[in-house]
Structures
1.
Amino acid sequence: MATTGIEAPGRAQIGAKTLRTDRWWITPLVTFIALSGFLVYSTWRVLSNQYYFYEPYISVYYSPCLSNTCVPGSGFANTPISWWSLSPALLTAWIPLAFRFTCYYYRKSYYRAFWMSPPACAVAEPHGKYTGERRLPLIFNNVHRYAFYLGLLLNVVLTWDAIIAFRNHDGQWGHMGLGTLLLVANAACLWMYSLSCHSCRNAVGGRITHFSKHPVRYQMWTFVSKLNKKHMQWAWISLGTVVLADFYVYLLASGRVTDITFF
Amino acid sequence: MGYLAKFRVWRGDNEGGGLQDYAVEVNEGEVVLDIVHRLQATQTPDLAVRWNCKAGKCGSCSAEVNGRPRLMCMTRMSTFTEDEVITVTPMRTFPVIRDLVTDVSYNYEKARMVPSFAPPADLEPGDYRMAQIDVERSQEFRKCIECFLCNNTCHAVRDHEENKTSFSGPRFLMRIAELDMHPLDTVDRRQVAVEEHGIGYCNITKCCTDVCPEHIAITDNAIIPLKERVADKKYDPLFSIASLFRRNKDDRTAPPAAKV
Ligand code: SF4
Ligand code: SF4
Ligand code: FES
Ligand code: FES
């Protein structure tokens, strides 16, 4: 540990890097395991390039599917990038990755759990130097808003996917299966996650100083501020629904289960 | 009713010191500060401790109890078991003067660097008129009792003494946010937030929020909104282009040079 921190000259010489007696390491540990698990699962699914479509359901990682190699019926042919021959998920999955990577909540959690800066409050961090978010690459976290805008576009696509999931396997409307439910729930949770975003809160009204002159924006800001209090919860819930929805499509497409239909 | 609690209290000064063990009587309803006072009254008359209101309102009795930054007067003994050892140390980010008393000048120096409230030049004091919804957002920040537990806990300075010159800590980023949100303030504070107060050092890990005895949502309501405002001005190219075409120009001025 550096002598520049709690051991710096003049400060009380205490020695221990923390005197906390509670189990402060549990939260960073659980966060580390959960986020690593999500990253491993997502990498596998994005690179595997198979079992992502089972009419009418499409996996979140592969939507919108933009290359000519997409499974028939799953995507859009003849897009400007239809020559792409690697997994089509690579064309779009960077958007939610960038969105979550620059998210203020996830920043908190990975700075704490992965970079241990700090691992927990009043627990000394193991680094000798610290420059925060002032340099490359972390300075890019300051333009989280662009990832937010792109994420909104993706939400529109995923909402459409959820709507067309009310068709059955043969393309007729008036169907609902477990897959429909999962896609609808996932789209809804992603909207809640996106709308509770801090950049959203700033954009709808946070940046103005005279709310009294902008009553509509004040209403929107008040609404987003309410959602924003639960941003962390939405971040985790939507992470869970992404995995659930995708995994169900995987099970169907790989023939491991048959769709549970309600009507 | 009462019992003998095991206390470990840091004794020493800026030359050195260490944790010392004491057994002290505890009665129902008491807080850590009561026990420290009893220690002073019965065993260690020279124990240095700063306090004032014993009501969580003056912000004097900041210290660390079992490693957690707390107000001693607001830390109830009933939150500990009777056989638990309770460790009390001074705040670990500021230079120690003696025992539990630290030198918190860093905070006052940073406070002086914040350009003060600047109402429009033609507005006389007494003529200020503001709508409640315009001021209520920053009223939360006015609850601050300047205990400096947030600045003490912020790892950017706690773990990196060298950052004290360029980073003002959450307390003063919050003060800048408060003024930047003020409906009558005429100064643009976004540039100084970056250049003089180092908002880029904050990595929004929220320890300031976790320790604030006034439960101010420092990170969510002050620092992140300020980071977003800074991004509007400094990091968002679209925003700069759009502002060229705006009807209501942002006519806030740059602040006067800081007094150091
Ligand atoms: S949120 Fe920022 S200011 Fe608050 S303790 Fe963490 S790094 Fe420091
Ligand atoms: S913001 Fe909270 S923790 Fe920081 S000085 Fe004020 S009352 Fe104390
Ligand atoms: S998505 Fe988390 S803050 Fe924007
Ligand atoms: S003595 Fe005033 S806050 Fe504790």
Note: The beta strands of chain A are 53-54, 57-58.
2.
Amino acid sequence: MTSRRTFLKGTSVGAMVAAVGSVSAKAQDAPRSSAPPSQARGYRPVRTLNGWTLPFVMKNGVKEFHLVAEEVEHEFAPGFTAKCWGYNGSTPGPTIEAIEGDRVRILVTNCLPEHTTIHWHGLLLPSGMDGVGGLNQPQIKPGETFAYEFTLKQHGSHMYHPHADEMTQMAVGMMGMFIIHPRGGETVTIDRDYCFLLHNWALHPGTYRPDPSIMQEFDLWTFNSKVFPAIDPIVARSGERVRLRIGNLSMWNHPIHVHGVQYFVTGSDGGRWPQRQWRAETTEIVSVGQLRDIEFTAVPGDWAMHCHMAHHTMNAMGHGIPNTLGVDQTGVEAEIRKLLPGYMAMGEHGMAEHQEHTDAGHHPGPANTIPMMTGTGPYGNIEMGGMFTVVKVRNDLGRRDYDDPGWYDAPKGTVARRVSDDPDFGNPVRKT
Amino acid sequence: MVSTKYFWRICCLLPLGLAGCTTVPSDLGRADVDALIAERGWSVPTQGPRLDALLTEPLTPDAAIQVVLINNPGLQASLARLGFGAADVYAAGRLSNPSFSAGWLDSDAVGEGTQRTLGVALPFADLLTLPARAGMAKAEFAALKSSVAGEVIATLTDAEIAFYRHVADRRVQDIRVRRATAAALAVELAARFHAAGNINDRELAEQRAAAAEAQLERLEGAARVQASRARLAALLGLSTAGGWQVELALAAPPEQERPLAELEALARQQRLDLVAARAEADVLAQRLGVTRWSRWLGDIELGYERERETDGARLRGPTVDLEIPLFNQHRDDLLVAEATLGQAVAGLTALTLEVENGVRLAYAGVNNARARVAVYRDNLIPAQADVVARTQEQVNFMLTGVFELLDVKRDELAAQEGYLQSVSDYWIARAELGRAVGARQPAAVGEPVEMESPSEDAGHEHHHNHGGSP
Ligand SMILES: [Cu+2]
């Protein structure tokens, strides 16, 4: 921070950057989702899961934003951090929000050790503003500030990311969302508007920096650079219309599944779809580089929302390790312990026991590594990680209340119950 | 002509006077040899413990040395060489015995009787060179004692080295047994995985192959233990079948070595082969000096003759036999003495150089072994322990499997094996340095090197500072 301030000292934008910096610092400390969005500016702002919206300054009718590309110490979950790259102190960078027809100027200061650019993914703008280094503009060298300026000709959900040494810079977290609200307001009123980015990280267990050389064998799968259970819940009041804007800047496709509702897919980064093209789904694949808007009417309860790739809802896990399922290690385990006192046979009956061991903490894992399965709900271990969070819908929620309401108090008789603990119970029909 | 009285004086007093200088020690120089050994840092038991008492406890390096001194058959042979030297000293201190002559010669002249002659003769040249020869013999004997002591020390050094080799083999074998156990456990586990349908035939076969290799390594280690025990037994003069044991402790190297310059100076003064070679050259120089004058003497014989002539007249008086160096001045003796001295001086020069270089090489060997010990102790051993602990953490989080854990454990054991080997290399190198310097290096007592399983307490502390905050 000091070096950046020093660098900008005496320049005309210096004071403003300092102001932005203080906003970002505050946003880092405070639980951001607790602040209710306001509609004072003529639109209902989005809630960026675990993230924040970048303030702007009006200058002669131009909304001026200032992004700073820089290294950030990012926390994927409490106590689990890495050196990443992002914007204005966070990954993803802050969400840029504006209104269709706005003239925007986005200053980009490069505090990275190498050059960068920003590509405004899906925006309709002059070719020279499109941000592909070398093709549309010279790259922004370390220490330089560039201005992007254009008029927003569209509305919808979009993204931004570097287009210079893209593989490295995206692999270490440089990305953000760009939300353009329709000038005339929403055709269908949206009560709660959430946005987040899907991403993958090769943050190998025990390391402190994502590895850009990995193409497929990723370790972490995130919503807005967080893993479960550190991902904010989607909070809504029963009957409200909820929109999720889900962008994918990872290197995998993600089938995003929401429990408890049939949602409509209502748009993409190609804009809002005509209503006749809306599709009812419960799982929608958000492919690499794509974005999907989905909308549903909130139904009371605690509902899982997650990527349907099972290993994307896990935290750090072994790839291709020996399969212990069904392996009886009785006797051998004790012998191994004579040689390796810390050894414990695991996984004979499946991996569910694993969370018990890791939660208990008596078999510690590598430094800076979050266990594969985490999270405890009202009925036991949730055994999830990665791209998983909960849609929490309550009847008695204030219209602007985004606080985590805790666990759902299910009405009597609406929770699955035990009727027997005898494995031979009943007469189930089996295929012979 | 020398008067009779004066002649007898020479004949009787001179040898008696000289005989005093040439007594042979009753222990044939054994005490001197012991002193030479003791001066060089080896404790020689005077009233030492009995062999069977020494063998009741596992042998320490010092106890093993005592056993060698008492019991090594080769040492007895070396010590027997002292007898030859003593014989030479005895011979050099004595004159050749006088000769007696007698004759009865009848005359054919009528009326004449028998001529009777009685004579006694003494080799006089012998008498003149006697002091010089006696001195040389003593010097020669001193050289022999040095040489014998050197042989004893060489055997003791061999025994010390054999001792450390055997200890190293035993310690390494303990580790090889553990490695084989780790491999056997991997096979057992692989069989369970295979039975559960989780690994294929090839993976099972690979584990079996690895375990078989570990078994072979263990058996090869067992053979090494047998061989090094046999080598040590030979030096101890014991049967390999005996129940004697060795103490398995290996001490860590001491903090510091003595400075090289000190060791080089020590070697020049203490190396017994150097001492012997120097003494030998002195003897040869003396011999050359004697030869320079004695060659002119040739054979001189002094005698006394008493004769009764045929006519009854009696004649008596001394006689002398002198060699006249007319045709041969015994220059060959001089040449041989000069050449022998030249040879010895050249040999001494060569040996001096060899000793100096040998000390430097042995010193480098000690320092190299010491550096290897440090790398093992400070780097490889903790690093391998860390690998095992960190792998265990990965296994805890199901990031890797048990086979890899057993593999890294085997690597850790291999590092421990190397560590023990390097420690024993150090003590062997130090014994070699003692050999090069000619004096046993004081055995500094270091902490014994132990190989507990470091994974037992590993794995809780969190390591690695990962930098500051943004
Ligand atoms: Cu996924």
Note: The mean pLDDT of chain B is 86.
